[in-house]
Design goal:
single chain; about 230 residues; 4-stranded mixed beta sheet; 4 strands; globular
Amino acid sequence: MKVQIWSDVMCPFCYIGKRRFEQALQQFDGKADIEVEWMSFQLNPHLKTDPSLNVTQYLADIKGWTIDHARQMNDHVTQMAAEVGLSYDMDKAVVANSFDAHRFAHLAKQNGKGEAAEEALFEAYFTKGKNIADHDTLAELGEAIGLDKTLVKQTLSTNEYATEVSADITQAQRYGISGVPFFVVDNKYGISGAQAVPVFLQTIEKAYSEWAVENKPIKLNVIEGDSCEVGGDC
């Protein structure tokens, strides 16, 4: 059963939601049957990367908040992150456009490293203060998760995976998704935001019970006769 997760690298609730979802999945007996697919979303597609810009000031500017209120909000999400074992350092976070980070994530997904790429990107942004728009940084992240560093840099030097990123965003729009994180479970149930672990667990269990019935093998009463078997001589 597939769970698709729309997120943006610079979304603090997305990393928190990721941890809470993982905690729910660990409590779920059928977790071996769950396929997780990360999907691209951009909260601010027109954002210009500016490593010199303070994130607190950036939030105050785009939200129309005072600096004190922006700082309070950062402190709030930092505390939320700590509750699920994450260490945020918002003072180090680099204001960066996430489009190339999403292209990098698609490259990783194509090579079976999608989950690792998402974790590496979130950690780089929220904990390590890395510029997730910088191609050298993304190449280093790729190498750390087992991708070829040269391949990452070559890919990012082109427009490869731009179509895939845009397709994810278009699909999100069709679902009516306007904020992230957003979880779509088996194309039936949507979960908006970094919900509590029980919410994730209950939704997964409900969707899985229906999925298991729909995908139950059909038991036939078979009349045996001469036949050719898969992989056998005939």
